Here is the input.
Amino acid sequence: MNAKELRAAFVEFFAERGHSKVDSSSLIPHDNTLLFTNAGMVPFKTFFVGDETPPYDRAVSIQKCVRAGGIHNDLDEVGRTTRHLTFFEMMGNFSFGDYFKSDAIPFAWEFVTGVLKLDVDRLWVTVHLTDDEAEAIWRDDVGVSPDRIQRLDEDNWWRMADTGPNGPCSEIFYDLGAEYGDDGGPAHGGEDRFIEIWNLVFMQFDQQADGEQIPLPKPSIDTGAGLERILCVLQGVDSVFGTDEF
Ligand code: GLY
Here is the structure.
């Protein structure tokens, strides 16, 4: 699959499941907590926090992103790893108070294993330390082997910026193989070996400047699936710079 085909497959998969197709927004956000749009959920922030009523309950987009400052600063990693970029595209499916974990997790798995046909034996999953519910869905509903599910702390809590929407998250990792680092899964193994390809954020809070966490009007879903990283896996190259995009 090339980049164009991956974009089309992602958008169609979620459109078939009731998601409205939304174009990428500008890299310059309408938001004074960010210099650049740093994730697919940024254009939807007002929907998550309840400041505006969305015209749809579900959306799918492929958002242009830049991470060059703030709490998601990939700039210092570029050129030092095979997977970090400043500018990249983030594929995302979003639920604004509609579906939650029990749909978002099977959607992700169906796309990754059914559409992309990634080798299940190479996939690992992480959940937040506190998230028994997500672990149970991965294990009991989706059928992921318990020894492929690990728990992380801060790495499995996603926030847009110092303030704003946030919540526990659950990530899918792809194992590039023994030649890329130590075994042990994403929690204990080599970070160049276990590559995060998909992040499901279970949005539940709106953090205030004083640290207070206000519950969102409704629990929501924000997905960040890195286009270039998934292309790496699909195209059998070990660097984002080796994909057809470059
Ligand atoms: N918004 C989820 C992520 O960027 O990973």
Q: What stands out?
A: The pocket of glycine is lined by residues 39-41, 158, 199, 201, 222, 224 (CB under 6 Å).
